[in-house]
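Input sequence (238 aa), recorded before submission:
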Amino acid sequence: MFFGFFLTSCLVERVTIGSWQHVLPIILVASTAILLIRVSNRKLNQQKKIKTFQFLGALVSLTVIAFHVYHILLGNYNLSEDLPLFLCSFLALIIPCFTYTRRYWMYEILLFWIIAGTLQGVITPDIANGFPSLDYFRYWIVHLGLLTIIFYATFVLKMRPKFKSVFKSFFALQIYAIILMVLNNVLGANYSYLNSKPESASALDYFGEWPYYLLVMEVILIPFFLLIYWPFYLTRKK
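Predicted structure, token format:
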């Protein structure tokens, strides 16, 4: 009875910034990721490091696939809202291509996409239904899982971006945005919030209304990517 009351009280319409449903998974996964990286560097040989890396990619990707299959089976799947075309869902779907091949050009692009895009989703979560909904677990596994994967590639597999990686990632993102704009127009959708801002609070709230916030994002994107690259530049210089 108490457990049922607990679940009912936890299931909210939307997760709010700073709530335990927002902060707790970040603390748990960040702690686990740090421990995993430390143990991998100290205890695992190269083959086991790669297997761990592949497992992380499979976990994140299968979570997205299972979530969408579940909603398709329910019969309420909406092509204009439910396709895995938001940046983080799209990245989660294709991330095994990187974790299994470990192609450097993929790392160059994904490092900036994941840190810039996923980090914003972690700081300002857009979760319609809180714990213990399936969407709640999918959201955090995808966002925090992607960050764990890119940090694992950096600190365990010793991948590092170059200065030109900033611009490779930027231009790849333009291609993704153009394709998504076409799909949004065809489907009457708003994937990656290219047609309007999310309902929940986000950094986009400070950039004006559509289409001005898109222009602001374009202007600040390369400086933001350069800020991400800055620690790597400092270590490379040393």
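Checked by second reader. The CA atoms of residues 109 and 125 lie 23 Å apart.
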